[in-house]
């Protein structure tokens, strides 16, 4: 999964995992200039709060103190950060890729 090294060059710190339900909370630090143009999606609801910097997902900018909710299966076509970003992120369940879809971010 993502907090297990699913995104190259992104540093993560797990804050908590509910082993029974699979929910998780972690910090992610994206370096300046980081980008991913391959499609990806997660089979869990994702919520994040930008603690520092800014991140762009599918052309939408999320700056410092922005909040977002991305529903399970939400397709991320492009993700990037110009100056880096630190996000507090929660997933509502185990972050498993969908084996029936061609573009799985956890490859």
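-> sequence recovered:
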């Amino acid at each position: 999964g993502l907090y297990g090294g699913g995104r190259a060059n992104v540093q993560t710190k797990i804050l908590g995992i509910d082993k029974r339900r699979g929910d998780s909370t972690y910090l992610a630090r994206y370096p300046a200039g980081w980008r991913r143009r391959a499609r990806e999606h997660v089979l869990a609801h994702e919520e994040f709060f930008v603690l520092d910097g800014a991140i762009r997902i599918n052309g939408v900018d999320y700056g410092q103190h922005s909040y977002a909710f991305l529903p399970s299966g939400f397709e991320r076509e492009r993700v990037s950060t110009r100056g880096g970003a630190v996000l507090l992120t929660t997933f509502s369940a185990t972050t498993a890729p969908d084996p029936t879809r061609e573009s799985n971010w956890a490859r």
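Residues 3 and 95 are 9 Å apart (CA to CA).
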